[in-house]
Amino acid sequence: MVEQHEISPGVTSTADRRIPTVIADNVHLIYRVHGAASGTTPVATLKRIVSRAPQANVREVHAVKGVSFTAYRGEAIGLIGSNGSGKSTLLRAIAGLMPTNRGAIYTQGQPSLLGVNAALLNDLSGERNVVLGCLAMGMSPEQVRKLTPEIIEFSGINERGDFASLPMRTYSSGMAARLRFSIAAAKKHDVLLIDEALATGDVRFRRRSEARVRELRAEAGTIFLVSHGIGTIRDTCERTIWLESGEIRADGPTGLVVPEYEKFMKK
Amino acid sequence: MAPTAVADPDSGLTGAELAARYGLTVAGERPTLVGYTKQLWSYRHFISAYANAKLVAMFATARLGRVWQVLTPLTNAAIYYLIFGVILNTQNGIDNFIAYLCVGLFVFNFSQTVVLGGTQSITGNLGLIRALHFPRAALPTAVTLTQFQSLISAMVVLIAIVLVTGEPITLQWLLLVPALLLQSVFNAGIALGMARLGSKVTDLKQLMPFVMRTWMYGSGVLYSVDNFAENLPAWAATLVEANPLLVYIELVRHALLENAPLTSAAPRLWLLAFGWALLAGIGGYVYFWRGEQEYGRG
Questions:
Q1: What fold does the segment set A1-111+189-267 form as a domain?
Q2: What are the domain boundaries of chain A?
Q3: Which of B10, B54, B132 faces A118 most closely, judged by CB atoms?
Q4: β-pairing, A191-195 with B25-26?
Q5: I need a surface site. Which of A113, A220, A258, B201 has the fewest CB within 10 A?
Q6: So which domain of life are we looking at (chain B) (predicted)?
């Protein structure tokens, strides 16, 4: 077992006074999954309702269990952990998209989640999706008009012919992910939460998106980055939080936390 | 001057105290009702773009595309006319039964599709809700707007039917506009309320078609509800007369048809229509707003 590191973060902060941007105070997150039951018969369901047993087809997943940390302005924090350790759920809660069940998350301004899961309308053309996505992020129609060609250019979906005017259901998964990332990356953010966004697309697009993330980072106050690519975490983040089964296993400088994590994963 | 990490003045503070000192706010906190309304207003472009997109997506895979917007109400009217007008010949003493029937069908269909769409507007868009931050009321509002656009094409069909069946054009036709606007406000409120209910009670999606069918029979779509008064106790008959959808349907009939029988006097109908719109609109909006934080949980 690896003991928890208690290393004071923010060593790299250049500010005189460290200004907190995100505070997580003993956060618990539970989400409900409907329709999780397998192989229930109508009779069994009726019996359950009559006997007032807890709903079998609604399962609660305790994804984050008592996480506390403080993030400061100018920090880039990597979130690592095995699959299902609660990283994405935590990011959603920081973005205010999921309410905390216990504890609280305090943030400066409105953090933005830059994920590849943003559901767009598959029956619509890529171009229309760009417009919708930008409007949903709160841009004005003029801004959207100006940015749309840039976003399509950046996503590179038009490199193989005019795909921007085709419905998104005709896109390959890589193309769709690239477009989603490009939409989300078009806006400036105070606190930016990046969820596996860099893992999509081909090498060329990844290089371009990494450059864009560095730009965004320069503009943003604080960045959280979820990634399974340890290399990306090493390159971008000076602080790393390691989550395992919803609890913080370690929180400290990347140089210390990542080797521990790698040792753990090899076991 | 600069405090070191060791002598940090912030050490020893709880999360809440630290947050208060630096002016941090709780993530995803529900705005005030006024603040929420302002937010919603600033998202009006998103709402209309989303409503349009849904409309386009609805017919995207059909070869005839948006022609179906007109074909759907037309086909519906044809089927009901065939069964009730031709085969069963249920005129019920109503002049111009086909126009009477079409008004009922189209106006009711507007509310029906909005209610069903509203029920699923949160559960069906969880991906979007969990990915982006926008006032959630935008979704049920967009559903109402999408169906309003369908209603307009249905109204074009309806006016054609009304004219073909020999109704004269009168000034009263102008009353169509306020009647449908009041109904839209009513629908938007119901859609908001149903959206919150539907996000909590997932079985509603299965239940709603039955609720809507019952509602249809009580709204005098296919016949005059005067028949009910003969078979129901007085209090139930009053309840049926106050039925908001009956009120909106009767108002449209009153506007377009010369000799349509009304269950209540026109001023009373207008009063009811206004009251229902106000009640459902404000009630639904406030009810939806109170659940704003919860919609991401699913």
A1: Rossmann fold (3.40.50)
A2: 1-111+189-267, 121-187
A3: B132
A4: unpaired
A5: B201
A6: Bacteria
